[in-house]
User: Fold these one by one.
Assistant:
Number 1:
Amino acid sequence: MFLQTTIAVMALIASGSAMPFMKREANQVVSGALATDSVTNSDGGAATDAYTFYQGDGSTGAGWPDKSRWASFDSL
Amino acid sequence: MPSVCGWNNWGAEDSSGEIQAIYNAIQSVAATTKVDHRFILAVMMQESKGCVRVPTTANGVRNPGLMQDHDGTHTCNEGTPQIPCPDDEITGMIQDGAGGTAAGDGLAGTLNQAEGLQRTGAQGFYTAARIYNSGSLDPSGDLGAGGSTHCYASDVANRLTGWTLAASSCTL
């Protein structure tokens, strides 16, 4: 996606906005199993421009994509 | 070049320098927060389509910038689009969204919350996205339930596999 420093994305109506519930400090760090310790651009497969309506709890059992199906940073 | 900002009437399109600054910010913030840079990118696209001059929204809570974060100090449009958007504002907007602010968790905090809810792997990221959008996970555990944007977690999961322009089939 950042090849040649361009983003090849067209505009759609922006969706979503974050709403806070709890006060926290800044400069947070992911501390457990969900931490990503290195930053690598070829860290996944090819991107597929398609939409699948995922429902439920986010598990692969409920049909949501495993991390192995995520595209690489440089293809996003 | 992208036409994100103009389509939404948010001001001038991102310049190539601003896009490079976004890239640099995502990479450096990913390194320090340990948030997967793909997740930062997906949530940024969900929140602002990458337009540096995205307006601050305020629906009881102030959400500025590329990540529409929790009342952060960094923005390039608090009513007047700033051209150019300075590199340190761009870095600040990404940092506020990924690393959190005094007012609320960033993606790092919501990922830690997801792990605390015994949700790891990809499910942990989708849960963290849900918490970033609405502040909590619905007691049912359903990522489409609760407040805010019901399609948010499904949208982010799709962005992570490459969704950009295809029509959404989310009916929530």
Number 2:
Amino acid sequence: MDSIAHLDPALGTLSREQIYNLQSEQLLYMLPEAMSGSGLVNEVWSRAGVHPRDIRNLEDFYERAPFLSQDRVRQYRDEHGDPCGGISHMLQRRLTGIASTSGTTGNPSPVPLSNGSILERTMTRDLAWCMGLKRGEYLAYMLFAFRAGLVPHRYRGLGATQICLNHSPEDIPLLIEASLRFRPTAGYLLSAPMVWAIQRYGEKHKVDLQDVFASYRGFGYGGERLPQAVRDVTDSWNLRMHEVSTLGDLGSATECEARDGFHGWEDFAILESLDPNSNQPVADGDIGELVITSLNDPAFALVRYRTDDLVRLTREPCRCGRTHARFWVMGRKGDEIKVGDRSIFPKEVTPLIEKHPELPAALYQLGKRSEPLDRLYIKLGYDSESLQGSLDALLSRVRNGLEDGLGVEVQIEPVLNSELLKLGPPHKIPRVYKL
Amino acid sequence: MSTSAFVNAPEAGSHIIAQCRTPNGNTLIPIAGDEIDRLRNWLAWQLRPFDLKPGSTVLQVLSTGAIWPLASLQKALLDGMLLPTFAESSPFDWYRVAAILRQFELAAVFDMNAEMLAMLEESSPESIDLLRKVPVVFADPVAKVRLAALGIAAYSIVNLGPTLAMECPLRTGLHVDGREWRVREQDGEIRVTSLLPRLHPFNDFATGFNGRVERAACSCASPDWRILI
């Protein structure tokens, strides 16, 4: 990535009218490209009887454009043998790779990569605007490679140098060495297991973690919501954490210094929050499904892509001064568990588990069936070495806390953490399993 | 910036700060863009005899910490108009490797490691059947032995630390870029010395790999020296 024109601060404070005009204009260029280059968009739109020439403005788009979904992308990939799932409108020879989503459902979705992608631009913006990374500075970069490949030049346009580390406790000594030697000003990403591992390492080896992290203006935290217990630990290091989410599968979305929602950059994508049943827009601040349309990605033709993320979205300006839409993630549509009439999300369960000192990593899975359940079924991860009493006593405490907090009956199956960790990275094990 | 300032702080001229594998654990070194490109050019040349069809998809099993030297391999694959897809080298990502083997008709797999292979055997035995159908598989030395037992004739690829060494289709030893590195053995250990300018030079670097050096040209016509590990 060479150009950093997208870092012009004026782009972060566009008025709603400017955003509307920009999106309207870019949409009219993007749709014909997507229709001609993206097999899936062509297929879905043709079946719906809609053509880009039918779309003259955003209102037409909202009224008539059909939807894409993760399942549809995977279906296209499997039917046509297209590794990009029909969502790339770039000639394959110009792609720089195919990354994939975390795949917490066990079936990762393809993410076509290219130079100048929205993924690159959102990550650069998040680091520069939200975490304050500047020219000539260092970035401690610990993102899993499956997410974006190995791109040594990604932040060169910004003039920053990546220090490349594994997202693994084994690399903690190198993280500490790099932090003390190069004094990076930003980091990307940490997770709950890594924070706990760093804390334990610091205690064991008598490392002054405040000194280690003294140069950082911010560090990204990703994978799932930032638990209060983890925030307390990083606060003790004087390290400011910025939660990181995704803009669908299109790019990243990060909290700014106000830490009040994820910034979704509306000059890159159209963000909608829709009732998943009626497909109608929900009111500002109400819960809806995040639907994304890429406006100017060189490769990725996501058009009205249903993310399966339930969010609250607002278009009110942020306290930081930026005007683009912000959203808060409530949970995955697929992670919603129905117990009687009650909808339960992992977001509600995690705090009730992690408050127990023996369960800092809060590894668990929730059982799900298509029909509502009579109780909440949980596979609860534990570590034998962390038990402070008997396992039965712990399970009893946890069950009582969950039943009090959620108002439903709970049944717990204890499982060793090591078994759950076989299912994925520690902060991304699938939260739901089929009963 | 003055010359002395640059010499004293080579990282100021670096493209990335990467990890270099050493026998005693990884160390951080500055890497310049042209160092990445020199290895990329050599790897692109090494890949040509494998006749990987342009437009094919290949799987790279890798990690961010291994950006050096694997970023050069990623670029070399793109130079060959191959499309890389990625999985973490950590065993937890076995399900992604299994999914990629199911979903893609792969022309090659790069850098299969022993831990990942063990997880695939345990958790997704059907993946081994799919791996047998991949025309070209590169693996670390331990994984290569296990793959052979599974009926898969893999090629060796080794991260020596400062650089990669890899077999050609003739499988007569791992080639090391002779323009970039001088290779010798001492007490049975392979050592390398950098010949071209680098931000972090290597002088008789002990790789930790036991083997011997074959100085005769390979029958593939490459003048590179080879190491037999």
Number 3:
Amino acid sequence: MDDLRRIVGADGVVTTPGELAVYECDAYTLEKFVPRAVVLPRSTEETAAVVKVLHQRKIPFLPRGAGTGLSGGTMPEEGAVMIALTRMNRILEVDVRNRRARVQSGVVNVQLSKKVAPQGYHYAPDPSSQSSCTIGGNVAENSGGPHTLKYGVTTNHVLELEVVTPDGRIVHLGARTEDAPGYDVRGLFIGSEGTFGIATSALVRLTPLPRAWRTMLAIFDSVDGATETVSAIIGEGILPAALEMMDHLIICAVEDAFHLGFPKDAQAILIIELDGLDDGLDDQAERVMQLCREHRAREVRRATNPIERDAIWQGRKKAIGAVGRFAPSFCTQDGVIPRTRLPEVLRNIAAIGEKYKLRVANVFHAGDGNLHPNLLFDERDPEQVKNVFLAGNEILEECLRVGGTLTGEHGIGVEKIALMPMLFSEHDLALMTRLRATFNPDGLCNPGKVLPSGSRGCAGEFVLRKEQGA
Amino acid sequence: MSYTVESREPREVWVPGSPVEIARLVQRAAEEKLAVVPWGGGTHQGLGYALTGYDVALSTARLNRLVAHEPYDLTVTVEAGMTLAELDSVLAKHGQRLPCEVPHPERATVGGMLASNASGPMRHSFGTPRDLVLGMKMVLSGGQEVKGGGRVVKNVSGYDVVRLFVGSLGTLGVIFEASFKVLPRPRHRRVLRIDGDCLDTLTSADFSLAFLELFWDGQPHLYVGLEGEKKLVESQAKRLRDAVEDDAYAWLRDLPHDHPAPVVLKASIMPSDVLELLRTLPPGAQALASAGVGVVRLFVSPETVPALADTVQRMGGTLVWERAPAALREQISLREFLGDSRPLMQQIKEAVDPAAIFSPGRLP
């Protein structure tokens, strides 16, 4: 600890139990563990020096941004030191002409967009947690958000990463310019969930803010009507900037919390946003509204000014927070399925909820098939907790059954490790293990995440990690 | 078809008909210590650093089926030996397309496009194959079949092996199948030429261009691509003064392959540095730039290379070979543009191809 204090200063090392408790989990609250210590460096050099010390002593460590992760990626293993990047929050460079910005990993996602908005730009990947999550965390998870349908995910917007490797060296992955020569080690690092090293800064693309938007809200009396509309819009050759769906429970939660005028008897709401240059947008919007009505929308509203547009998005971005009104705890799932299987899968998810006596509130990126079923429960009741694990697993098995995948945004973390063998063969996992070993040969950087090892459970069984004494 | 690479001929050409056959052949190569170069349409075999061995060309010509096209999911899955032209005609049946271009789509294959991360004018609006591929299946040097990604557009399960293989120039394994996200075909399209350099206007957010190519022959000539709803195309065309209709798209797309220059390099620099780089070229040298992204094909003669490398280095960009005689590649390295992650790349090559059979020397 003294070595670490010498590097980051006495106020950069947290060891008192009360303060450490804050770091015991991220937004995946089903598993908790308090780190041995938390170190808060202020620069890349400090980060590298800290990692060198830990590496020399063979002490496991892991990076953390804002702790908004939903798969337990920042849950420490026993004895691990957490390296929190939150003090490295400076925007280092903005080059509007070349549409690039360089930021430290601790910069909050929405702060970057706010900084370049006056010049007509934004940082496109916009997770719903963007007012808290950090760019470093986005890199670790390859984060998406509602606009990925048109704009892509983090890997499509990061050009270069400055990375501290697990043995404390500083390397640059990618390049400041396009088409970096050699292997796409930058692409391999993105989404590696903090198991390949620590990204300390990123050079990212800036995207012009669209000149115009058309944002619509369609209200349906049935989930099927909403999901059929999604397919119809895509089939028409229209690619919205965003296409989001919320079901009955979420609508009620959001309306009670924010009074945005959402009808509480609706079974599903679609938010559809088109963007681009103004010419031609009205024609597209008309076509979209027509399609909604053809598929039994009860009502279609269109925002006529930025305030109305913001109100529509408020309802979506705060949806998961609003769900807290209905239950003390919730677990957000993250499976992806082919869009065309939405109606069938949503029906099966409802059935799984009934089987385990759990209410399920669905809000998700319908345009890209990325589901977020929220299982509502009370974590003080071990029977409900067990049911949440079982229901969650069944939902993901359902996603795989229809040709989908385990996670679209939240990552594998600890939450889904046991399911990896359902999606990947032993050769696939062996390749990933070898790749991890090239970055992290001693296995000290964020151990116990992403890849199953002998010691972690098997599918169908769960073990609630013990909480350390308070 | 000729299987020559940098004046080297292979001893044999293998043409497997299935992934299982690929695996058997690859295992044989590992046992007999043969250097294998995976082969699609042969349009991009000039990329990378100098090959240090070449015994066998492994062609994907027989692996050219459509596996699945799901128009309402906007995804398509094909075997790697399918040509880009064939893929385009499959997607056109449902009014869709994959906006990835390579020179000579009637020869170039999907697998080759992925291995080279090749792109053309449309990268201005849609990016490169790396941005459009969803999943991939490969055979590694131990004969194992592996996959990365899947058939859905959002996927962060496990490590991003797909991104690693894209652009790996046939040095990590044999890609035999891939899935892509596809997009609607535009209803209207126009290509206009402007003889001038009004780049600042055209790269501003007041325009939404499909592509912006700059051909240099001592003077800048801009080719602007407009696509989409009729109103959108026409209103933008009206705002382009001094523009004439010139549908040179196919010429622009094929030029990186067809240009007769002895040496072709690709420089990646800041878009704001493009004109400055072009002005350093000697008379007679030509270039084709995707001006909005700063990627420049340079059509030059060998003696120009060292000065170009210095200029690009000074500008903080990168430079790679696209066509050059083997002797030149050995004389001038260009490996310094790999940066400080080169040791990591070497470790990855050793980890993924421990038998060292795939396109040795080409990367890193």
